[in-house]
Amino acid sequence: MALSAKERKQRQLERERQELVKIQDATYPYLATPFYEHLEQNGNWSSVELCFDLLGIDPPSFNDDRGPETYANDICFSSDQEKVETFQSSEKSIGRAEVMVDMLIGAAMEMASIINNFKADELQKQRLELENRDLSTPESRKDALEKAAEIAKLQDELSKNVRYTFPRWRVKLKS
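^ that's the sequence the OP posted. Answer follows.
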């Protein structure tokens, strides 16, 4: 079966995204100070540490210029070659920080999806319970309709996406 124009375009964009993953950040040749040294002088890192502390998670530390492959857990990879390929475009402590941002965003998206699905399922259960209630009295009907309207409003809100904007942390240019 032939692909539609939309499907061809989606596949093209995915191939281009995969190519960009392999390309090194265009700013790397211009970064004279290692990222970990910059953090020692930049007081804003305490804001990042506070966020992790509020979660009860040990905040990451940057004490040297080792890259993300040094810190990645070996159980995530089937071979050393796969590990090298995964981090081929992320170098030193700046690459580790970039990978961290990518992974934290990925984890936040997955966690948000799990929470959303949980709430949607629970609301649907409540809605079904309302439909199966005894609605023989006007008061019970009124109460059920009010709750059903509120649940519908909540379900509608859960069906929406939210958007956060971030400053760009990777710059990859195609030649």
